[in-house]
């Protein structure tokens, strides 16, 4: 029996536990199982739903979320985790999030940038998980508007289906000949004469729960991420590295995360209408 570490978000709070798995098909691939254990960020939800009985049946919600505790609905996410810590401030990330900006060389700033427009940064460290995230730009290879198909030529990690090469350069504004995830990863890792983005050259697509760990569930409009650290963020579908298996699928779909709602679903790998945000493993 193989043990896989799975993470789920249920009713606005995070659960992490182990389950046994005897199937040959899972959402994890061979290479991904060796990635360090992931501990998710909190949800950033600090408001309460009121009156449990009416909230269970009303859709849409009859009243806005409140900052006042309602004892008819105890144990809510707003009472749990890092984001309800009264010592938190929003200087380094909203609520329980804690981020650090990196310049193009991968160094932290002695004086933090006033804003992205005046002093654009290139990467962000999530201090809670240790993962390093790509920051999107307004033009060029990392343009936030660029879209890609899911493609992975490695049979050991592509879930039995390589995906779509995508020979149409228009979806990524002709920054690549083939606008797909594999070509984009190669291009990012080869930046700066092979030194890579922010001095790192092992960038990859994130796992589903890795990508979801930067989602801010307190956001009610626009991209559900702290745009003080992740400027130029799209509130749309973003690829993960994981092939989706369920029902009658044959490996031709991959999981993606919606940055407008915070949920995840499977998408055909051949779709050229999905965005990318790369991640790098923690660096000691």
Number of helices: 4
The tally of structural domains comes to: 1
> Main sheet: which strands, in order across?
3-4-5-9
Strand fraction band?
15-25%
In total, how many beta strands? 9
Characterize the overall form: globular
Oligomer: single chain
Radius of gyration: 20 Å
Residue share in helix = under 10%
Query: What distance separates the N and C termini?
Result: 32 Å
> Any low-confidence stretches, pLDDT <50, length ≥5?
1-25, 28-36
Helix and strand sequence: EEHEEEHHHEEEE
Structural class: mainly beta
Instruction: Write down the overall mean pLDDT.
Output: 81
Largest sheet: 4 strands, antiparallel
Task: Give an account of the 3D structure.
The chain is mainly beta and 284 residues long. The chain has one domain. It contains four helices and nine strands. It has a four-stranded antiparallel beta sheet with strand order 3-4-5-9, with no helix packed on it. Strand 1 and strand 2 (13-21) form a beta hairpin. 34% of the residues are buried. Mean pLDDT is 81; it is low at 1-25 and 28-36.
């Amino acid at each position: 029996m193989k043990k896989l570490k799975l993470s789920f978000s249920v009713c606005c709070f995070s659960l992490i536990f182990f389950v046994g798995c005897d199937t040959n098909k899972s959402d994890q691939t061979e290479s991904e199982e060796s990635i360090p254990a992931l501990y998710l960020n909190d949800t950033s939800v600090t408001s309460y739903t009121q009156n449990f009985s009416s909230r269970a049946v009303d859709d849409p919600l009859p009243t806005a979320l409140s900052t006042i505790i309602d004892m008819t609905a105890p144990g809510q996410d707003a009472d749990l985790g890092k984001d309800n810590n009264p010592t938190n401030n929003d200087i380094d990330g909203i609520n329980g999030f804690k981020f650090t900006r990196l310049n193009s060389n991968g160094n932290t700033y002695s004086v933090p940038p006033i804003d992205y427009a005046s002093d654009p940064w290139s990467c962000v460290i999530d201090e809670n998980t240790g993962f390093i995230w790509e920051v999107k730009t307004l033009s060029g290879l990392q343009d936030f508007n660029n879209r890609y198909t899911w493609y992975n030529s490695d049979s050991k990690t592509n879930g039995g289906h390589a995906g779509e090469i995508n020979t149409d350069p228009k979806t990524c504004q002709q920054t690549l000949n083939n606008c797909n995830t594999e070509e984009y990863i190669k291009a990012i890792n080869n930046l700066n004469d092979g030194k890579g983005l922010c001095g790192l050259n092992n960038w990859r697509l994130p796992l589903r729960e890795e990508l979801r760990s930067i989602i801010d569930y307190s956001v009610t409009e626009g991209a559900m991420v702290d745009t003080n650290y992740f400027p130029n963020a799209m509130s749309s579908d973003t690829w993960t590295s994981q092939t989706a298996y369920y029902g009658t699928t044959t490996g031709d779909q991959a999981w993606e995360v919606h940055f407008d709602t915070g949920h995840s679903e499977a998408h055909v790998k051949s779709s050229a209408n999905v965005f990318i945000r790369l991640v790098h493993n923690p660096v000691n």
